[in-house]
Amino acid sequence: MNNKTDLNDRYNPSEFEEKIYKLWESSGAFKVRIDKSKKNYVIPMPPPNVTGILHMGHGLQDTIQDLYIRYKRMKGFNVFWIPGKDHAGIATQNVVEKMLEKQGIKKEDLGRDDFVKKVWEVVEKHKDHISKQKIKIGDSCDWSKEKFTLDKDLSRAVTHAFVELYNRGFIFKGKYIVNWCPRCETALSDEEVDKITENSFLWEIRYPLADGDGSITVSTTRPETMLGDTAVAVNPQDLRYKHLVGKKVNLPLTNRVIPIIADSYVDPDFGSGAVKITPAHDPNDFDVARRHNLPSIVVIDSKGKMTPQVPQPYRGLDRDTCRERVINDLKERGYLVKTTEYTHNVGKCSRCNTTIEPSLSDQWFVDLKSISSRAREVVENGTVKIYPKRWEKIYFDWLDNIREWCISRQLWWGHRIPVFYCKNCGKQIVSESEVKRCPDCNSDNIEQDPDVLDTWFSSWLWPFSTLGWPLNTEELEQFYPADLLVSGYDILFFWIIKMVIAGTTFTGKPPFYDIYLTPLIRDKFGRKMAKSLNNGIDPIEIINKYGADALRFTLVYLSTDGQDISLDPLKFEMGRNFANKLFNAFKFCYPYLKETIEPIRYDECDLYDRWILSKLQTTVRNLDQYYDNYKLQFIASSIYNFIWHDFCDWYIESCKPFFFNSDKETANQAYVRKANILTYIMDYILKILHPLMPFITEELYQHMKSNNGNLLTIQKYPGVEEKYISDIDEKKFSFIENLIVSMRTIKAELNLHSRKDLEFFYLTKNSDEKNIIEKEKDSIKFLASIKEIKFIAKEPDSRFSSSVISDTILYLVIEDLVDKKKEIERLKKEIVKLEATKEKLSIKLNSEDFKSKAKKEIIEKTEKEYSEIEKTVEILKDKINKLT
């Protein structure tokens, strides 16, 4: 790229972003090499689903990761951002099943092997799609290092981990309650279940005592599962039922008798205070049953149908139909006491939206509790730090309540469980390699377990399996543990804690040292983004409209220590406007930029030069601290404030008299000095902004005359030059800034914006402030667009408008400037109009009809409008008071 080429007339990111990324890639700027002369910096990229598409959560997380990768690369680190994708067992299988369904084909029609081949075809077709989307964001990965959780080396790691844990006694098979999807016909992890609020009913049912002496009323939201009840439970402290504990009841609609037990799990305030216990279809009931040695009866099968274990009239019914039949039969036989409307959370399969059936099932489990102590220790002793720190408590709470992890899935796509069964003698063999013959009876009638492993079983190994583990590779030695993991707080338990457990269990080290938990992105009304609400924001659409830099800047700017982001697409205009501001500033500076940055002659600098140099170096110093402490919003806001306000609004404006009046010898000297400082600052700006907004900074850097054809992305990040930091100069300029702003405010309040012939006066007893004004008088007049500012010994006799700045009082005599009568009339008319609008809004806000029917966001918008009008009216009244 010719760095002497003139810039385009306008900022249009679509004209250069793709070109810039190709320039980076062709240069090898992102290539990962083992370099023992440098410190390493490693981030394992959370692997997105292989058939997935980019969402705004990816946009935020990738921006943060790339921010740190680019920053550390420029700081001289040997960086490795490990890219990859997840095979996403159930999600990918569902995608392919739905594709086949449209062709009238079921997976069973193909058989397991052919179905898996079909999935691979789909994966191969779509696997690069999300990577290309990440490239549009600017992800600076070495894509040749990209991994896939079903790659041979990662699959080897998965099998090795299973066998090792099994041999150590931490993996076992058993019957437990799992989340079961009757449509997908597989067990699900908790993170694959969405909790949806539904309106339903709470039914109270009378269970007659077996001795005929009365009855007990139980409360339930699932009457169809009562056919599998094996007890009625009450709280041991509930005096209402103390006399019934130990007795038995006749289970309605069946011929069974079940006991009444006491267990502290029961909430006495829920319904009647007595609950049915159905161990095979409720995880809490399952725990109660284990404590009281109760049997478990499975009454709903894998397809959601009633089993042969229920009375004849209900067998084979689907669970919803059975519910209706049970309720009608209870009503007819006099057992239904009461039906109450009830709202509660219902588990739904995140892939197909089918209601989850908690079900007793034979599954493989990992005993997480037995291998999790080191995961607690590394956070407690500070080896692993969590940002924001408040999430540490949640981390420990989850570890304290950790349960067995169900790792088997009844799917065909994924890592096959490495367990083999001899069909001849029944031996179970757990092996890293395929078993052809039984070691006991030598039979070749061997069958592998049909289930696959939970997707998270491969992704919990991600930070080290991607580096070659269990082999002792050079990459594993150099790049493990990682330095940072960036992920959403919503998967702290489902993935992050599991990775810490895996790392400490298999390698003896934590997988990473810092964990940064990002906020969730919600819509502008604070609602979770969901397909059902159609409120998602496509990051690619935002990039196409505003540019990748605008997306990146806005997302980081809005990230405030883990608080969820309510995102209005219009907010991306802020990022676009900032990029545009920088583009136009560069265009203005371009004619004055030098080919060589000369050493700054500090003793020749004026106050504006010294101030901007101090502000720049203070900003750079602060940025390093913000990066170290993951203060992301401060990274964005401090750069924004320096570039937009300090550099563009003040310093560039202060330079204009020197650039536009360069005919005098003194002005020529200042011209050269200012041009050199502009070049020095622009070079700094492009470098400190590059990690956050890489495309525009690289584009502009290619036009820097001092560039010599180099790429910005591999330039050294500038250090802090402490010698330029001056609190004294910053305070002096702050006084001038406040003085000029006050002048502008007075002019605006009096509708004198365009008047450049005004004379201001000032009164002060502070000699330092007087010296500053007198010394900088010319620049003050230029920046405030006034004719003169003069010192006076006493307050003016004529009518004036004034403002206080520190120890100085600023005056503008307005006797002959403003037609007081006309101005007051104009302001009063404006107030009348606003009061009329305010009255209409007040009527609306006090209307019961409006309050009950209007959406929450509409009410809030109306309240805000009312409040803003009130403030405006007060401002106008204050102006009238000043005029009178």
Descriptive tags:
single chain, about 900 residues, alpha/beta, Isoleucyl-tRNA Synthetase, domain 2, Isoleucyl-tRNA Synthetase, Domain 1, hypothetical protein PF0899 fold, 4-stranded antiparallel β-sheet, 4-stranded mixed β-sheet, 28 helices, about 15% strand, globular, disordered N terminus
Fold and architecture overview:
With 884 residues, the chain is an alpha/beta fold. Among the domains are: 186-359, Isoleucyl-tRNA Synthetase, domain 2 (Alpha-Beta Complex), CATH 3.90.740; 548-706, Isoleucyl-tRNA Synthetase, Domain 1 (Orthogonal Bundle); 730-813, hypothetical protein PF0899 fold (2-Layer Sandwich), CATH 3.30.2320; 820-883, Orthogonal Bundle (Helix Hairpins), CATH 1.10.287. The protein is 43% helix and 17% strand. It has a four-stranded antiparallel β-sheet. α15 links the parallel β22 and β23. α21 packs antiparallel against α22 (694-701) and α26 (820-845) runs antiparallel to α28 (856-883). The protein is globular and about 105 Å long. The two termini are 64 Å apart. Residues 1-5 have low confidence and may be disordered.
Shape field? globular
Radius of gyration: 35 Å
Order of strands side by side in the largest beta sheet? Answer: 6-5-14-16
* Poorly predicted parts: 1-5
Tell me the name of the CATH homologous superfamily of one domain. Answer: Valyl/Leucyl/Isoleucyl-tRNA synthetase, editing domain
- Per DSSP, the total helix count is 28
The proportion of residues forming helix, as a percent range, comes to: 40-55%
Number of strands: 29
- And the CATH topology of one domain? Isoleucyl-tRNA Synthetase, domain 2
Strand content range: 15-25%
What is the second-level CATH architecture of one domain?
Alpha-Beta Complex
Kindly name the structural category. Answer: alpha/beta
Instruction: Report the end-to-end length measured between terminal Cα atoms.
Output: 64 Å
Largest sheet: 4 strands, antiparallel
What is the top-level CATH class of one domain? Alpha Beta
